[in-house]
Amino acid sequence: MSENSTSHPLDPLQRQEIARAVEIVKRDSGLDSTGWFETITLDEPRLALPEFNAAPRQVPRRAFVCCYEPSSNRTLNGIVNLDEDRVERWQNVKGAQARIVPDEFAAGDKLVKQDMQFIEALRKRGITDLETVLVETWAAGNFDAKEEQGERLAYCHCWVSNDAGDNRYGRPIANLHPVVDLRRGKVIRIDDFGVVPLPPDTKSIRPTENLRTDIKPLEITQPDGPSFKVDGHAVEWQRWHVRVGFNQREGLVLHNIAYEDDGRLRPIMRRASMAEMVVPYGDPTGGNYRRNAFDTGEYGLGASLDSLQLGCDCLGHIHYFDLFTHDWTGTPLEIKNAVCMHEEDFGLLWKHTDAKTGKMRAVRSRRLVISSICTIGNYVYGFFWYFYQDGTIGVEVKATGIPFPSAIATGEKSEFGTLVAPGIESHVHQHTFCFRFDMSVDGPGNSVHEVEFEAAPLGPENPYGNAVKINDRSLKSEAGAARELDLAKGRYWKVINPGSKNKLGNAVAYKLAPSSNALPLLDKEAPVAKRAGFMFRHFWATSFDPKELYPAGWYPNQSEPGEGLPKWIKADRSLENTEVVTWYTLSFNHLPRPEDWPVQPVVYAGFHWMPDGFFDENPALDVPPGNGG
Ligand code: CO
């Protein structure tokens, strides 16, 4: 199963490949000197199944490149063939605005601080030291304002740092929103909805005094090393096979997830990623309706990955993957320790005690964790993928950082938020994530089922009223496969392979086991709701199409309504015995608490994919008792 560590077609682009792609685009695409690079990433080949994890055939290395050209206000993208040293395809994506890249954030901050009207608005608020001010150029969204159509805009939010200098969001400047034309590098106007006093100085986020002293060392040792094997970006751990991939938009991507069952490598998913997210805020006053962060599609999670630190972000025997992204000039940037991989003890896996003989077996569970963390402005998202010895795949979001702070005058009541500190409120919002799974449960011919339970009425065949009917039905095509959770029915979804039967004669399956979730709090007619249609269903299934990667469409920055999943499923393609992609929308509501200030303890949200008749019996019977036998 091993492969040459530098030659797998799904390996992320290396430093010299990014540099090469930039050279070729500059030479051959016609991009003018104002143009800059939004994305330079691997154009992922989709390998035929026999090559799923075994040594693959050589396919040309291709880069997907997206550029923005300010002089013409065009977003351009295409495919660069690195082996053949040429641009294969190049197009102007009409009406699209490229993501806002980190360099634009930096440029926007600088630009706004040179604006006299902004300086005057700060002075009115008693702020004179521009060094302490932070201006963030958020994507403006699309609110159908005529003067904004076709322009590349940012709607800014502003803060003043605390005196300790470790919280740039420490003292929010309420009601002050510069509107920036990112293309021309101009402030268009300053939205000033009235002065709210600056909150008092806030406490340090990183105190150095009065730290608790009663913590004894907790050390995780693996004297014989970890149980995983790594070859380049390929990982093997306890029967699991998976490849670690990356792009600027989604960040961590997993490829070719498979389980070795009795010597046979059985595919489960071709590709798994967190494909889009949106965080709509619930305060309609002033300019706050503009806060609706599509962090993946508007800014890029992969462009914002942290370099992780051993002993802080990660504990134990860690394998780190380094990755390459780039700045807007196309200069490659290395992200050291971008992806963390390690094993974790996870409590009990299974146990049985025989009451008569007293014989007992308790088997401890261990999981493989592959994760990355990104910092986008005030907020921090960790994306954690777990592989368990019983065939379960876990997906977890860890949300931390600083809840978006606004200022409120003393004595005023916060109708759409809570006070988190004197003079500081934080508004109610939702975090919504949409995960994409390119399924391949035991091969490419998959179908989608919905399972729910129903209490049968009392009657001659149900005299005690305990009968529960199991309704397992096929979701035959896309339009009918956009579904919501139903607590009363215990609803969940399965992907089955009708061509592969287990020893009981049933089609093998993986089931999507939801945990807590939420429904959108937005009105369906809200402009942001129409651009984030994916959030109105928990489950979607589509027939595989290589162009359908992002549930709010390819370019959500200032996008038109209706892009992505709601549009694609209108084709109502068959979901029977075909190549199926499933999408799961995970939301949680966040009304910040005083305990979330000045930095929020991690909030967890997640779900699982569990084998459901994929194996013939408990696949973890062979895990030895105790910790590692
Ligand atoms: Co939040």
User: Hey, roughly how much beta strand do the residues contain?
Assistant: 35-45%
* Strand count: 31
Q: Which stretches are low in confidence, meaning pLDDT under 50 for 5 or more residues running? A: 1-5
Strand order of the largest sheet: 16-17-18-19-20-31-28-27-25-26
CATH class annotation of the largest domain: Mainly Beta
Quote the distance from N terminus to C terminus: 26 Å
**Class by SSE composition:** mainly beta
Shape descriptor: globular
Q: Which ions, cofactors or small ligands are bound in this entry?
A: cobalt (II) ion
User: Measured on Cα atoms, how large is the radius of gyration?
Assistant: 26 Å
How is this structure best described in words?
By secondary structure, this protein is mainly β. Helix content is 8%, strand content 41%. The chain is built from six helices and 31 strands. A ten-stranded antiparallel β-sheet has the order 16-17-18-19-20-31-28-27-25-26. The longest helix is centred in the first third of the chain and has 14 residues, at 15-28. It starts with 14 loop residues before the first helix and ends in an 18-residue tail after the last strand. The structure holds cobalt (II) ion (CO). Residues 403, 429, 431, 590 line the site of cobalt (II) ion. Residues 403, 429, 431, 590 line the site of cobalt (II) ion (CO).
Compact summary:
With 629 residues, the protein is mainly β. It is 8% helix and 41% strand. The longest helix has 14 residues.
Topology:
Elements lengths: L14 H14 L7 E7 L19 E8 L4 E8 L4 E7 L9 H11 L3 H9 L8 E7 L13 E8 L10 E3 L2 E6 L4 E7 L35 E4 L2 E4 L2 E8 L3 E11 L2 E17 L11 E2 L1 H5 L19 E8 L5 E22 L6 E17 L2 E10 L4 E9 L3 E3 L9 E5 L2 E4 L1 E11 L7 E9 L12 E7 L17 E10 L5 E8 L12 H5 L7 E5 L21 H4 L11 E11 L9 E12 L18
Antiparallel strand pairs: 1-2, 2-3, 3-4, 5-6, 6-7, 6-8, 8-9, 10-11, 11-12, 12-13, 13-14, 14-15, 14-24, 16-17, 17-18, 18-19, 19-20, 20-31, 21-23, 22-23, 24-30, 25-26, 25-27, 27-28, 28-31, 29-30
Bound molecules: cobalt (II) ion (CO).
